[in-house]
Amino acid sequence: MLPTIGDMAYVPSETYLFSEEVRRENSKYEKLSEPQLVLVIGEGCRFYQVLMLGNPWWVRKRDVYTIQEEATYDRQAS
To answer: What's the rounded Cα separation, in Å, for the pair 27 and 40?
Structure first.
C-alpha cells in the first residue's frame, strides 16, 4: 500500500532527505542516522514531501513505507 498525503510513514536509517524536490547547487540534504516516523505532506513525480521534526523534506518514494494499523478482532467466548 502506497502512502497518501496525511499518512504517517516510516523512513529507514541511511536514507537521504533533500530540501528541494529538484536537486540544485544550493539545496541541502541530510542522511538519516536512525529510522524516523514522518508525516506525508506532499507528492511529486519520484519523491514524497514529508514533515520531520517540524521541517519539510523530500524523500525518494522507494524509501518511504506506509505504517499499517494492526487488525483487531473481537472474539466472544463460546
So the answer is: 20
- Please state the pTM of the whole predicted model: 0.80
pLDDT in tens, 17-69: 999 876 667 778 899 999 999 999 999 999 999 999 899 999 999 999 998 76
Residue type, 66: T
Percent of the chain as helix, strand, coil, to the nearest 5: 5, 40, 55
Query: Which CA distances in Å does 57 have to 43, 73, 75?
Result: 11, 37, 43
Rounded to 5 degrees, φ, ψ at 10 are: -110, 135
Which cell numbers hold the place of 3? 502512502
Query: What does the alpha-carbon distance between residue 23 and residue 11 come to, in Å, rounded to a whole number?
Result: 20
